[in-house]
Amino acid sequence: MALLPRNAKAGMEGVDKEKMQRIVYETSKGSKYFENEEKKEALLRQKIENMRAQRAKLSAADLSHYQTVADRRILELEATRDLSRIWLHADMDAFYAAVETLSNPSLKGKPMAVGGMSMISTANYEARRFGVRAAMPGFIARKLCPELIFVPTDFKKYTHYSELTRKVFEKYDPNFMAASLDEAYLDITEVCKERSMSGGEIAEELRKCVNEETGLTCSAGVAPNRLLAKVCSDINKPNGQFVLTNDRMAVMTFIFSLPIRKIGGIGKVTEHILRDAFGISTCEEMLQKGGLLCALFSHSTADFFLSVGLGIGRTDTPQVSSRKSISSERTFSATDDETLLYQKLADIAEMLCTDMKKGGLCGRTLTLKLKTASFEVRSRAVTSEKYFSSSEDILKYASKLLKAELPISLRPTLVSFQ
DNA sequence: ATACATACC
DNA sequence: GACTGGTATGTAT
């Protein structure tokens, strides 16, 4: 059985999900992509089996030891709980699609997706009712919704509107953290205090202001930390908000019934592992099974799981760290023509070099990412003595890496690390 | 340092 | 017919 694609998004009530699943399945069944997905799922099942076996091997003494470890760690984490800050997570509603509708109002009310036949990056709410969603290939989306309108991606436009929203965010928190073009975290503790307003009142005002400045709507979550604020912004999407008060009991009540998949950082795979190997589906169960988690996961992963169970997240404002990598990748139809592969590599090297020059960046490690015709992904890296940034250097290292892989049928990529 | 996986938008 | 692209981070070796 295939894994479910992604979170069911808002606006999907009263829709024939089974029929949609079947269309998605029928459309991709038998493809190279599908075969690769099945292979990955088999590996995941294997990994889960291994974890179940490890779990079964734990003696009563082990279990009691790790329970003690978990109990102590829970107390330590609880001691770090900070309820003094108010965080707001702002999330634009169907951002790219909404921007495109703004510049072409005739799209209003019609199912529409931003992207093309190979991939969709955003679907508006009308399209979501048909099961169309981000990260779905366009040709499948069109099967789900034959009248779907496709609009090509235009990052310049989205960047412009993103800047408008950021001017608003700045007024509430000059140090706000941009998470992407359409999402940001704001520490609104000070502004709440200065203006004697609640987090919810600030959120209402901010959303109204964003709407006036851009014509777009957004949703907001207000909570004592960023992890919770992010969960909250999704609750009353679109054009809504949700406030979680700075009260330990309120936080615990909220988090306990929450499915773990709602938490940022817990994706499809982690959800599957925790459910099938440990019977964990809600955040409360993270705490209840804390001993097992401490026994079978690394220190940092177990810590993350336990803090999720406690509803503890980051409340600090880290200074903006410099970027750690820059990459350029392009997927093309599979070929084993070596001359063509080198040509593609040169093109990507050129694009990467352009981006590096633009950012005034250079790197020491070059990673060549290869996608085979069967959708398998490989990476090969070299680290040089000195930093480099010229397209000649990039191509020199990349060619060497590619040469070692030939002969091969590829649809590749190129990455450079710092 | 390298390879690969996971996650997020 | 067709399943992205950019960045960060975790885990294992």
TrEMBL record:
Which chemical reaction does it catalyze? DNA(n) + a 2'-deoxyribonucleoside 5'-triphosphate = DNA(n+1) + diphosphate
Needed cofactors, names only, are:
Mg(2+)
What range(s) does the UmuC domain occupy? 87-267
**Localization, UniProt:** Nucleus
Ranges in coiled-coil conformation: 34-61
| Keywords noted in UniProt | Coiled coil, DNA damage, DNA repair, DNA replication, DNA-binding, DNA-directed DNA polymerase, Magnesium, Metal-binding, Mutator protein, Nucleotidyltransferase, Nucleus, Transferase, Zinc, Zinc-finger
Q: Which InterPro entries match?
A: DNA/RNA_pol_sf, DNA_pol_Y-fam_lit_finger_sf, DNA_pol_Y-fam_little_finger, DNA_polymerase-Y, DNApol_IV, Rev_trsase/Diguanyl_cyclase, UmuC
The protein's matches in CDD domains, at most eight in alphabetical order, are given as:
PolY_Pol_IV_kappa
Broad enzyme group: transferase
**Molecular function (Gene Ontology), one example:** damaged DNA binding
The UniProt record lists the keyword Nuclease: no
Pfam family name, one: IMS
Which SUPFAM superfamilies does UniProt cross-reference here?
DNA/RNA polymerases, Lesion bypass DNA polymerase (Y-family), little finger domain
Recorded GO cellular component terms are:
nucleus
| NCBIfam families reported for this sequence | PRK02406.1
UniProt record similarity statement: Belongs to the DNA polymerase type-Y family.
The protein depicted here goes by the name: DNA polymerase kappa
